[in-house]
Amino acid sequence: HELRTPLTLILGPIKQLLEENTQTKNHLQKDKFDLINQNANRLLNLVNQVLDFRKAQSGELKLKVSKTNIVALTKNIFHSFQELAEDKKIHFNYISENDFIEGYVDKDKYDKMLYNLLSNAFKFTPKYGNVDLFISKQKSNNLSSLIIEVSDDGIGIPKASQEKVFSRFYQAKNSKVNNTGSGIGLSLVKALVQLHKGSISVQSEPDKGSSFTVKIPINRTAYQEQEVFEYDNKQVFKASPQITTVNKIIQGT
Question: For the whole prediction, is pTM greater than 0.85?
Fold first, then answer.
């Protein structure tokens, strides 16, 4: 938290400077401000991941699932990566077996899961490669599950490393990539998936790519009463009897 506060205070003035620069049209200055903004956001994202991971490990990270249009939520995340795909000249594809999937997920944590999986795929996929995002709904014994698959045709993961990629701070040994990141992202993804009572697996082959598959339940009955948050038609907050004050709901916790 001591790191997050000054980073937030840095990002505020930078955003203001970027807006002012739009009026003056000083392109050299704008490039510098953009670089500061991008790297400050990356650092803030990393700090938030560390905080989330610590909360997950200590059992303090709580679910707040609500009825969600999962296809719309997924498409929003997909669109946020399209500019990166264009910059890296990577073919980025969204595939869904269903035009509409509704179910119970924690939207904030779902966003973090998918963001980390896609970031990982783009990081290890070369120019003109492919990254695919696939979602579908699976039903068994009146229980519905969401299947999410993020695949790429990048450098792949050595067989010996595949069982360890979800361990905290672990970085797969690969001579083709010097900076493999912090080793937190996939570990956080696994923690968030398990919080959703789900599972995650990986299939990979060096030089042929990787595929991460997540399966999470989306029925209301899969979650405890205190994990479910509903809104009525007037958008007035309604929670389970165990949660009695709106103040207990803090975004991102």
Answer: no
